[in-house]
Amino acid sequence: MGMYVLELGLLVVGAVLLVVGYRRNRRTMLVAAALVLLVSGVVPDVVEGFAEGRANADARPLALLQH
């Protein structure tokens, strides 16, 4: 549920920045909108991949490896 809210929030912020930047002819707002929209599409996959990698990691503390 939290990821859905984050993704939707970033999508709305990106759309607002896009409209405001276009109407006021501000390139920096348009660049920010592009970055926010890019992040809104990538965040769920990154978080899922990180969680999956952490769950499947078999790393042990270095102290255990020295014996």
Structure explained in plain terms:
The structure is a single chain. With 67 residues, this protein is mainly α. The chain has one domain. The protein has three helices and no strands. The protein has helices at residues 2-23, 27-56, 62-65. Helix 1 (2-23) packs antiparallel against helix 2 (27-56). The mean pLDDT is 88.
Q: Percent of residues in helical segments?
A: over 70%
Using only C-alpha atoms, the radius of gyration works out to 19 Å
Proportion of residues in extended strands: under 5%
Distance between the termini: 44 Å
Mean pLDDT: 88
Key structural traits:
mainly alpha; 3 helices; 0% strand; 67 residues
Summarize the structure.
The protein has 67 residues and is mostly helical. Helices cover 84% and strands 0% of the residues. The protein has one domain (2-65).
What's the layout of helices and strands?
Layout: H1 2-23, H2 27-56, H3 62-65
Helix pairs in contact: 1-2
